[in-house]
Design brief:
The chain is an alpha/beta fold. It is built from 10 helices and 13 strands. The chain has a 6-stranded mixed sheet, with helices on both faces. Helix 5 runs parallel beside helix 6.
């Protein structure tokens, strides 16, 4: 039986809390030895990760650390070379992207991914179609989705977009488009939201709005996010995993990770050196 840095143990089959009781209900997604090689280059090398249900878990690291590749493995855009992925204790390593969505794993991307020439309301209604069992009936007229208006408006209100409901998505400011993407993700009723750089390219005002939104939507679900903005990470992340050269070099709270010598060495002298400045400004 192996004890990890956070005081948890594994007997190879179950995750055991330091108290000795199984944690199967607490760990929503887990990777064991997850590895991805490209022609001999190891982009992700033997990553063991556990995300607890109800947490905001941040995956950070310098540029080229393997964060996006890891996300692509989780969401089946890439096939792992070795290793396993478990969701709620079930091996999903060979599952299709569609099966992951049905299980409640939904991902957003670095760039806003909405239907640009549809209204804000229609974007959310499309996401809600799965609640009626009509997810693949794209040939049906938009009028057939009017029954979803009430739910769609509730979602838009939750992300502060109700006043933009009839606006065409392409007309939204960038920060509002990201909020719309989060609303469409919520429309799919995810258990686990995977957010890839949710505040990338935003103004300070938009960063604050999206940070507050992530905290709000995480009250009833789990969030795993890749994020470069250390101010955001330090504000909302319950737990942080740090990658460097495709391997985990630290895992824990922001207070613990920010003092880890390996983490400081990884960030020093890189474009991501804001980690050190953020840490010093919060102490």
């Amino acid at each position: 039986m192996v004890t990890g840095r956070a005081g948890y143990q594994s007997d190879g089959m179950r995750v055991i809390h330091r108290s000795g009781f199984p944690m199967t209900d607490e760990i929503i997604i887990e990777t064991r030895g997850l590895t991805k090689e490209f022609n001999g280059f190891v982009a992700v090398g033997g990553v063991d990760l556990q995300v607890r249900r109800g947490h905001i878990h941040a995956l950070i690291g310098p540029n080229g650390a393997g964060k996006t590749t890891f996300f692509n493995l989780l969401t089946k855009f890439l096939v792992p070379t070795r290793g396993k992925i478990f969701f709620e204790g079930i091996d999903i390593t060979s599952a299709s992207p569609a099966e992951l969505a049905r299980r409640g794993i939904v991902r957003s991307f670095q760039m806003s991914a909405v239907f640009p020439h549809m209204t804000v309301l229609d974007n959310v209604r499309v996401g809600l179609q799965r609640t009626l069992g009509t997810s693949f009936h794209f040939w049906k007229p938009v009028s057939s989705l009017r029954i979803l208006d009430s739910n769609a408006m509730e979602l838009l209100e939750s992300v502060d977009l109700a006043s933009f409901a009839q606006r065409v998505a392409v007309e939204l400011p960038y920060g509002r488009k990201r909020a719309l993407e989060i609303a469409t993700t919520l429309a799919m009723d995810p258990q686990l939201m995977l957010l890839d750089e949710p505040t990338q390219g935003m103004s300070h005002e938009d960063v604050g709005r999206i940070t507050a939104l992530i905290r709000k939507v995480a009250q009833n679900r789990t969030v795993l996010m890749v994020e470069h903005n250390m101010s955001v990470v330090s504000t909302i992340a319950d737990r942080i995993t740090v990658l460097q050269r495709g391997q985990v070099i630290a895992d824990g709270s922001y207070a613990d990770v920010s003092k880890d010598p390996l983490v400081m060495e990884a960030y020093m002298g890189s474009a991501d050196s804001e980690f050190a400045s953020t840490h010093s400004s919060t102490h």
